[in-house]
Amino acid sequence: MQIKNLTIHGKTFLAPLAGISNLPFRLLVKKCGCSVVCSEMISAKGIFYNSKNTLNLLTSQKEEQPLSVQIFGGDPESMAKGAKFIHNLKIASILDINFGCSVKKVVKQGAGVALMKEPELTKAILSAVREATNLPLTVKLRSGWDHSGEQAFQIAQIAQNCGVDAVIMHPRTAGQGFKGRADWNLISKLKKQMAIPVIGNGDINSVEDAGRMLESTGCDGVMVGRAAMINPFLPSQIDDFLETGSYESSSNYEIFRAMESLTKMYVDYFEEEPACKMLRSRLSWFVKAMPGCSAFRKKMSSINSKNQIIELIKEFETSIN
User: Fold this and answer.
1) Residue 268 CA to chain centroid, in angstroms?
2) What's the rounded Cα separation, in Å, for the pair 269 and 221?
3) For residues 77 and 48, what is the distance between their CA atoms, to the nearest angstrom?
4) What are the tens digits of pLDDT across the range 123-174?
5) Strands 94-99 and 67-72
6) Longest Cα pair distance anywhere in the chain, in angstroms?
7) E strands of the chain, at which residues?
8) Residue 17's pLDDT is what?
9) How many C-beta atoms surround the C-beta of residue 246 within 10 A?
């Protein structure tokens, strides 16, 4: 796939997941074979005001390339400055703008999905960002504030006219959050309208889901979100299936080694105590539906060290083999 001057080897993208798609998780998913990983959502105003917490989210390593960095905001000035700042960091292969977040604190800022009600402001923001950087530029949309998708079609057309290089669509309304079904028919309609690549997002929980989305909508790529939290190998399995018509399910051995790898990266990145607190829930995602997963989850709830985690992983692996 080609997005502006960037050649992407594969059709899979990791979605930006607040609090999840941090550097260690991105490195793991990239190591497992995803084509493009995406940062957590970055506040343009946070960059503008030099917020330490915001700038920490921009930590990157060359091993995760190509990296898409997503920013959000509700005014042209801070968005342009944020785009320029990221451009100058030289970590991003793609700059993505969020038009889909429906979290109240984001919408109250006039950012995320709130922008889908503001076509003129959207045009001003996209024009300012396009002028600030020549990075490949994408936008991530919801279907809008109702089920028709008309707002998405309008914003996507504005984006294309402003020089945006690809559109990512999550066809749920602002009010749906992650509930209900994603309306893939809207992705199909958008693809027919656009001259630039369209990437589909929503309800991709398996390799077969991705195949059906690509076949039924004609979209150019797929973005995987929450399912990658359970199976970080899913994006590479999708790419294998699309290229060869078959794929291999990840083995228990691979899953447990991924858990160990993520543990070590979390501890190195966040330090041991905060890393362990986060990993108490996050490692349980990987063993969902395995025999004895409930007992593993219960034991994980009280771990306090990297060594405890590694021991628990090995103990659980032995118990199911």
Assistant:
1) 22
2) 31
3) 9
4) 999 999 999 999 999 999 999 999 999 999 999 999 999 999 999 999 999 8
5) parallel
6) 59
7) 2-3, 6-7, 12-14, 37-43, 67-72, 94-99, 137-144, 166-173, 198-201, 221-224
8) 93
9) 9
Torsion of CA 80, 85, 91, 96, to 10 degrees: -20
Stated as kind and residue range, the H or E segment containing 277 is helix 272-286
For tokens 């700042």, the residue is 85
Angle, helix 306-320 to helix 252-270, in steps of 10 degrees: 170
Helices 119-132 and 150-161, axial angle in degrees (round to 10): 30
Q: Are 102 and 124 in contact (CB under 8 A)?
A: no
DSSP-assigned states of every residue in 31-56? HTT-SBEEEEEEEHHHHHTT-HHHHH
Give the residues across from 293 on adjacent strands.
Answer: none
Rounded CA separation 9/66 (Å): 10
Instruction: Specify the CATH superfamily of domain 2-244.
Output: Aldolase class I (3.20.20.70)
| Cβ atoms of 57 and 42 closer than 8 Å | yes
Q: What are the tokens at 236?
A: 């590479």
The catalytic residue positions are: 101
Q: Quote the pTM value.
A: 0.95
Instruction: State the pairing for strand pair 2-3/6-7.
Output: antiparallel
Return the domain boundaries, the chain.
2-244, 252-320
Placement of tokens 């996050």 in the chain: 282
The closest of 291, 297, 294 to 320, measured between CA atoms, is 291
C-beta separation of 95 from 84 below 8 A = no
